[in-house]
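Example 3.2
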Amino acid sequence: MGQSRVYARSEHNISRAQISENALKVLYRLQKEGFEAYLVGGCVRDLLLGREPKDFDVVTNADPEQVRKVFRNCRIIGRRFRLAHVHFGREVIEVATFRGAGEAQNDKQVLNNEGRLLRDNVYGTIEEDVWRRDFTVNALYYNIKDFSVVDYVQGMEDHKNAMLRLIGDPDTRFREDPVRMLRAVRFAVKLGFKLHPDCEKAMHGAAELLASIPAARLYDEVLKLFLYGYALQVFEMLRHYGLFQILFPDTEQSLAGEENGFPRLLLIKALQNSDNRIADGKSVTAYFLYAAFLWEPVRLLAVQKMNEGQVEYLAYQDAANEIIAKQVRCTALPRHISLAIREVWSLQPKFNIRHGSKPSRLMLHPRFRAGYDFLLLRAETGGADPELAQWWHIYQNASEAEQRKMTQPSRKGQNGKPGRKRTYRKKGAAPTSTEVQS
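Structure, written as tokens:
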């Protein structure tokens, strides 16, 4: 193990003014009780970049039970590795105990046959803990005792060089936890860092390792990948390393084809719109993105069913059921998410009806806005009539009187010619031949 390099306060840009008041309370309280206490991980990395961290993680030589004795507002969680969560209202400061060396495997540390770490409650020292972290830039320790940054793995150098490098042998680290490949993509895109060549080499051809990860965990990772403003870049990088096909196999297969000589663009447009909304401070929902991810597989399967003689409504309904059932085996979908996805899809044919009371009733649907946004996506990428999308745009912003006028049945037939004049026969009169045929 190499010697640590300690960067004094004058050698880095982290200030206590940038650190959460509650995180400082935890650090000082642990130190006062005689324990070591450091900030570690993404918060240190982001502070060095001048960014505001999403959360603050603390690491200490106190075990979870000792942390709970220090803080009454503490709750212990986790099975794979036990953690202490110290609650301050809505803010939670996560406190982890130094992890022990990987070689010290015992009944508290369990690996499966593929070398994936299933449970890891081996505690150790800071010198051992650093080797259990994933990337060098995530293994920097901010010491509250003297405000220094402690670096055992040349993380500060990698930070300055914008390099994402794994600690240890990349092949081994990815087998221990294949989700590290997704984290590598997410951090590289989010931070604007490049992957170290050894990391890149290990990722090529290792995508199948992700198949051993529980679908529920992969669903959580998908949210982290696509809901934070870098969705399009993440998508492109995941496909480059063959990771996307493990997360969304049907979508990957559908992207291989073209529509009238053009690549299918709805998903690309959805990801762009998502990034733009986040940049503008607007929210993005998981169900809408999933609806975009899975729409093309659903549409293609529905077309296949219609060619086999099934009516359109049932074809889309059955296709949706089949595609979602397959997807949950890859990335588990909570029931409320899958229901919302189906609602967005089921609204699409209803936008075609523009006469009578149905348009006004459709606007009362709780998913109307999401359904309308999805219609716009389809119209912008050739999947729906732009005139239809424009009509709904005007209708939403029209007065009640204008809306009634817009939804009145046309006096012209569908071919644009005047409709046939309706004839009425007198009571008791025999029907005409036309009436009989009709």
